[in-house]
Amino acid sequence: MARLLRRLPGVQLLLLQAPRAGGGGSAWLGSRAAHSDMDKDTGSLTRYDASHVTTDWQKKLTPEQFHVTREKGTELPFSGLYLSNTEPGMYHCVCCDAPLFSSVKKYDSGTGWPSFSEAHGARGTDESNTNILRRPDNSLGSTSTEVLCKQCDAHLGHVFSDGPAPSGQRFCINSVSLTFKPSSSH
What we know:
By secondary structure, the protein is mainly beta. Helices cover 13% and strands 35% of the residues.
């Protein structure tokens, strides 16, 4: 049985009550927030219901972009649009348009994915002014470091410690998680 605990404009908080295993009364299993469309415009402090977010991303992205950025997939090596791009400019998140990597830091790693030695806005090892986050990833049976967009949590790729000096980093990024904006010539 679900009980409505509190109703705020645009948000309903629900707690579910279920029988406790082995008898002995009931237990509160957890909570779930239900949001209205109003939350999109007001910047709700709670996360959206996952089905709502999934639907929006599926409308905005191609199936391959959705798979890579929202389901943590990987594009096939040597298949990406930006792998061989040498134009000067900025690479942005395909989901939210946040600037992520400058072409100045792009290099050919020979791995089959666009590679960058540092994120846009990095100052040495300080990445506080970038639009990326790092997160441990154990999904492939070994520990690696996932790279996410700080603005929208899009999966971008992974970072490794076998890159060129001075950073020693190789940001191995899926082309489908990016859009490219050429530098404007004046």
